[in-house]
């Protein structure tokens, strides 16, 4: 399968951008930052096609930033969404969550993780078909075929 950066040549993109970045915030404070090795912009759709995107969500609590990365992504400014696939990895404060897909919805301030969701860290492993991260509440909820394993959390 070709990398998404290689597909820019096959798509009729309006602009190719190297070292692409977006910052979203309100009141002078950044709520998230997206960086990507490269991006193709589809002007008519208002969509950025992303290569190796990394998104940093700044949380208000003491848990620190939430980092999410994947090989491919698509950001839509019109509906304030970001889709990531196929090898999504989210990390925050000693917890790692992997999934096949993730969708950030800005209007709800939520991240939906889908397909092969695995939480690992802090002495627990959780497998589920889906999970939701509420950025506002700093809460994670696993749903659909949830299986939990407890293990010793290191020395």
Task: Give short descriptive properties of this protein.
155 residues; mainly beta; lipopolysaccharide transport protein A fold; ten-stranded antiparallel β-barrel; 1 helix; 62% strand; globular; disordered N terminus
Task: Briefly characterize the structure.
By secondary structure, the chain is mostly beta strands. It has one helix at 4-7; strands at 15-26, 29-42, 47-51, 54-57, 66-69, 72-76, 81-85, 88-92, 95-99, 101-105, 110-121, 124-134, 139-143, 147-150.
Could you describe the 3D structure shown?
The chain has 155 residues and is mainly β. The protein has a single domain (4-114), classed as Lipopolysaccharide (LPS) transport protein A like domain (lipopolysaccharide transport protein A fold, Sandwich), CATH 2.60.450. It has 1 helix and 14 strands. A 10-stranded antiparallel beta barrel has the order 2-3-6-7-10-11-9-8-5-4. A hairpin with a 4-residue loop joins β10 (101-105) and β11 (110-121). The longest helix is centred in the first third of the chain and has 4 residues, at 4-7. The model is unreliable at 1-10 (pLDDT under 50).
The CATH architecture comes to Sandwich
Give the CATH class.
Answer: Mainly Beta
Q: Give the end-to-end Cα distance, rounded to a whole number of Å.
A: 41 Å
- Runs with pLDDT <50, length 5+? 1-10
Q: Report on the biggest sheet.
A: 10 strands, antiparallel, barrel
Strand order of the largest sheet: 2-3-6-7-10-11-9-8-5-4
Q: Based on helices, strands and strand pairing, what is the structural class? A: mainly beta
Count of spatially separate domains: 1
Q: What is the CATH topology descriptor? A: lipopolysaccharide transport protein A fold
Q: What general outline do the C-alpha atoms trace?
A: globular
Query: Strand fraction band?
Result: over 45%
- Helicity, as a percent range: under 10%
- Whole-number radius of gyration? 16 Å
Mean of pLDDT: 86
Q: How many E-type strands?
A: 14
- Written as H for each helix and E for each strand, in order along the chain, the element string is HEEEEEEEEEEEEEE
Number of helices: 1
CATH-level-4 superfamily name: Lipopolysaccharide (LPS) transport protein A like domain
């Amino acid at each position: 399968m070709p990398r998404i950066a290689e597909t820019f040549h096959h798509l009729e993109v309006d602009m190719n951008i190297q070292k692409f970045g977006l910052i979203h915030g309100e009141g002078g404070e950044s709520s998230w930052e997206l960086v990507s090795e490269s991006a193709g912009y589809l002007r008519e759709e208002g969509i950025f096609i992303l290569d190796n995107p990394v998104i940093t969500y700044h949380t208000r609590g003491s848990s620190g930033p939430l980092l999410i990365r994947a090989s491919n992504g698509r950001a839509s400014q019109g509906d304030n969404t970001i889709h990531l696939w196929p090898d999504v990895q989210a990390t925050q404060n000693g917890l790692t969550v992997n999934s096949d897909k993730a969708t950030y919805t800005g209007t709800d301030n939520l991240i939906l993780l889908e397909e092969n969701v695995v939480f690992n860290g802090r002495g627990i492993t959780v497998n589920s078909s889906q999970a939701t991260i509420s950025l506002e509440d700093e809460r994670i909820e696993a749903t659909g075929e949830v299986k939990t394993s407890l293990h010793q959390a290191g020395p």
